[in-house]
Amino acid sequence: MKKYNIGLIGAGFMAKAHSAAYATMPMFFWPVAAVPVRRTICDLSEEGARDAAARFGFEKHTTDWRDIVNDPEIDIIDIATPNDSHAEIAIAAANAGKHIFCEKPIARTTEEAKAMLDAVKAAGVTNMLAFNYRRTPAVALAKKFISEGSIGKILNFRGTYLQDWSADPNAPLSWRFQKKIAGSGTLGDIGTHVIDIARYLAGEIDEVCGTLDTHIPERPLQQGFADKLGTVKSGTHAKKGPVDVDDEVKFLLNFRSGASGSIEATRNGWGRNNYITFEVHGSEGSIFFNYERRDELQVYFASDPADKRGFRTIYTGPSHPNGDALWPIPALGIGYGETKIIECHDFIQAIATGQDVSPNFEDGYKIELICDAIKASSMDRKWVKTNC
């Protein structure tokens, strides 16, 4: 059976998620087009790289990502690093003829994203961006209903992504709060996930009008490199540094189809852990999804008899998208890991068959254009075209 050697750059939270997906994907989707082999992992320190290799099941380790990119035995470069290194690594990987899987957002800026897109197009390599939430079976089922016309013409999309890991002012000043590394704050970190879902379900976004806010302007300096997402707190008297990115975004949007919508995202919403929701209204029905109840999709069909109308809950299972590869009965439990497994399968399948896969760097570039328009709108207080 065909095998693809993986070179994973980064050894944090996302490296764990990706490694688990590579290890278990064949168990769910057997027989597979190719088996991913965890060959080499990279971290900045020798100790960290060695520990990551042992923990995540990689054969080798290195502290220089160039060793992986230049290794002729590596087929796939997996970029799971902070945003400031995405472009350099991806462009080098494309020039080396490697297929590329990159964590979101694609880059810090539109210029970096365009350079990455140009590089993969010139090289002709398969590329994918890790907006994994669209691969939740319930979200894929929503896409199926919309594509089939079950709720008619899309009129409106409303989406949220609310977290609370940075609501405490004593959460440390990690790289996610620094523009030179992250590029943006909540907008790029989690807002882009909802933008991806909106484009996936309702089509291209033509114009936006919104605001970006930073409610906690400084935070305690972080000790070390670990990204604990707010779980490690500093003392109230610790030395602080400035936050120069947004921690809340709200915007209206108009789709090319004529539909309208709104999206809101924050990392400071006490009590909301990973609250991703969307509601889609069509001319003949509605769909609602809440990721914290991710086995469920709520649907309303206006074609039902008047005395039977109302939202019904569908529990995703074997008869729904990717359900037959996961668990044998509905509502047994779909988690974050399963979305990464499906994502891994689709990427490997695309490489093996030469088929297109989405979201890819083209999608990532367009999402950066949308983010630029939101930033401009927040500054100028007006509607801005996305130029997608």
From TrEMBL:
Alphabetized Pfam families for the sequence: GFO_IDH_MocA (PF01408), GFO_IDH_MocA_C3 (PF22725)
Transmembrane spans: none
Domain (Gfo/Idh/MocA-like oxidoreductase N-terminal) ranges: 5-129
InterPro entries on file: Gfo/Idh/MocA-like_OxRdtase_N (IPR000683), Gfo/Idh/MocA_oxidrdct_glycsds (IPR050463), GFO_IDH_MocA-like_dom (IPR055170), NAD(P)-bd_dom_sf (IPR036291)
SUPFAM superfamilies: Glyceraldehyde-3-phosphate dehydrogenase-like, C-terminal domain, NAD(P)-binding Rossmann-fold domains
Keyword Cell membrane attached: no
Domain GFO/IDH/MocA-like oxidoreductase: 140-287
GO molecular function: nucleotide binding; oxidoreductase activity
Keyword terms, alphabetized: Oxidoreductase, Signal
Taxonomy, superkingdom: Bacteria
Range of residues in the leader sequence: 1-23
Protein name listed in UniProt: Gfo/Idh/MocA family oxidoreductase
